């Protein structure tokens, strides 16, 4: 018996049922989009929703929309008049995300931006209560440097994939710029006196960063 697989099945059987809209979005992503494993998925989605509902944020920033799964999960916790800004580089994914934002009844709360997050973030006005980083791992430090001053004290940054399939503890391939980016980011956050942080070691690792 594969204990890890059985534990995941057990966890999924004991958390809230997956939203039908998210279930449909997940199915379409796996059928029609490259690298569908980039999707947050049900377990991570419930965690994102729970964090957002606890904070009841007025403004959320997401870097890396993909097909919109995580944006929908995060937007469920927004204050009544809150907004979520989400940034995606790949314009071929825009229509899928937009379709499901509408199906979820969240299209008025979610504002889509297409392009390089490093260019778009400075154009957005803070403060943000919650930021979710799930873009190019080589640019995590750049994203952090751009958003940290736009986050209110006590605000939260969630950074995805910070264990990077275990590569953070394996012998480093000097050509692997993605892993280098994650390693540098993790160390930078550890050393930054403006924030406190912990790591949630599920899936590919989620770092919870709180601005002091």
Detailed description of the structure:
This protein is α/β, with parallel strands linked by helices and about 210 residues long. The chain has one domain (about 5-210): Vaccinia Virus protein VP39 (Rossmann fold), CATH 3.40.50. Helices cover about 40% and strands about 20% of the residues. The protein contains eight helices and seven strands; from the N terminus they run αααβαβαβαβαβαββ. The protein has helices spanning about 5-15, 20-30, 40-55, 70-75, 95-105, 115-120, 140-145, 175-190; strands at about 60-65, 85-90, 110-115, 130-135, 150-160, 195-200, 205-210. The protein has a seven-stranded mixed sheet with strand order 3-2-1-4-5-7-6, sandwiched between helices. α5 links the parallel β2 (about 85-90) and β3. α3 runs parallel beside α4. The model has no long low-confidence stretch (mean pLDDT about 95).
Please tag this protein with its features.
212 residues; alpha/beta; Rossmann fold; seven-stranded mixed β-sheet; 8 helices; 39% helix; globular
Any idea of the CATH topology? Rossmann fold
At the fourth CATH level, what is the homologous superfamily?
Vaccinia Virus protein VP39
Mean pLDDT: 95
| CATH architecture assignment name | 3-Layer(aba) Sandwich
Structural class: alpha/beta
Percent of residues in beta strands: 15-25%
- Low-pLDDT parts are none
Protein name: Caffeoyl-CoA O-methyltransferase
GO biological process, one term: methylation
InterPro entries: Cation-dep_OMT (IPR050362), SAM-dependent_MTases_sf (IPR029063), SAM_O-MeTrfase (IPR002935)
GO molecular function: O-methyltransferase activity; S-adenosylmethionine-dependent methyltransferase activity
